[in-house]
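Hey,

Quick one before I head out. I ran the complex with nicotinamide-adenine-dinucleotide overnight. Inputs first:
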Amino acid sequence: MVDAAALVSSLRKTFDGGRTRPLSFRLGQLAALQRMIEEREGEILEALRVDVGKPRMEAYVAELGFVLGEIAMVKKKLPAWTRPERVATPASTQPARAEIHKDPLGVVLLIGPWNYPFQLVVAPLIGAIAAGNCAVVKPSEMTPNVSALLARLLPQYLDPDVVKVVEGGVAETTALLEQRFDHIFYTGNGTVGRVVMGAAAKHLTPVTLELGGKSPCIVDKEADLDVGVRRIVWGKYFNAGQTCIAPDYVLAHASIHDKLLDRLRETIREFYGDDPQRSPDYARIVNARHHQRLSRLLGEGEAVTEIKAVEAERYLSPVVLRDVPETAKVMHEEIFGPILPVLKVHDMDEAISFVNRRDKPLALYVFSENEGVQREVIDRTTSGGATVNHTGMHFGVPNLPFGGVGESGMGAYHGKLTFDTFTHRRAVLIKPTFLDASVIYPPYTSLKEKIIRMLL
Ligand code: NAD
């Protein structure tokens, strides 16, 4: 097993030596990361196919394409982001120059999950490098091919004294968490999120927790069902539902409920054919344990699509359920698979109160052509992020913060926010010595106090 203490102390030595600080070094590492993705695209796509059966298009869009976009943006903006920011000084501190410096934090730990096993460690790594840190990358052990590939490629392309990959599961992560880091960035479920935060607390290490939950999808009576259903089916069955921001369940207005179910069934057939098992565009469940977990969620409600589960192939067909009671198991845990319960609501008040009675979700979707309804749903609920009339799309806007709230996590990233996550905004005040007003020094007099009162 890895000697976590020695590993972290070697990274700290590199950081203290100042190698990661120059802008040129950071830009060079980002260019190398970009080169790695471009040159090794075939190997990365293949590892994603073997581990999660990811269709090529989905793997490119959500894993490689997204990350390449982030690198291109960061390379362009980094010179401006790293420059000290000049701010105004009040009369009481003048003459002086006040600046915000962008200090790297030091050595950071990035822990990733299995559902987007490449993107979800590489996207935070871009920010960690851009901000001038050393990093330990801990990919998920549930996607062993992607994990092994990252362990082989990252040290080949990046400075191996600056970025280290640790492979493994609970034992290895526990050993890492015993060390002192300057930031821990964790993506995964809330149970482990609590373990990570507990370990971080011992060292007063700040954390970003990118967690999950049940993201609702509200379909109003004034929704454009033709477009809306295509977008719901795409967002739900992309990566076979194993997406943290996939619509978890639908709350459909009673007046369009039956029509919506018909359209869902038709669109699934249109996208994946009569037998989705044979579709090259439909992913697999990550492992047998999750396959069994999903099968156990299927007892309640009535299926309006054919249910086909082939454990040996980790295949589960796209399932739509109707008449699901609120008490059903499928309504009590994050589904994280290709099962979509559709529940009936009679108005938007009912939908909003359904959402607000539950944990704050990572994402929320509302489909309506009525701007008043869109606004009402957004204003009267909360969630990590939201998209109106589409699913998952807010994720792809680099200027929008991506993260959860409450049970769905804390902290946010993407674009400049990833750089900010791994940066300490340090207050620096530079005073000249040519003027040294004695008004603040003892002995204090009533005249000095009068002057101070005027200045403050
Ligand atoms: P996972 O099982 O791969 O675990 C995530 C990481 O935690 C892994 O690296 C694993 O080794 C580590 N880990 C597991 N048990 C541990 C322990 N006891 N102590 C220390 N480390 C441990 O992935 P998962 O948690 O099943 O991922 C799915 C969850 O992640 C879902 O809830 C999903 O919504 C959420 N998710 C959130 C986002 C987001 O960006 N907010 C993205 C993807 C997934």
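Residues 111-115, 120, 138, 140-142, 169-170, 173-174, 187-189, 192, 195, 210-212, 244, 334, 336, 362, 404, 409 surround nicotinamide-adenine-dinucleotide (CB under 6 Å).

Talk tomorrow,
K.
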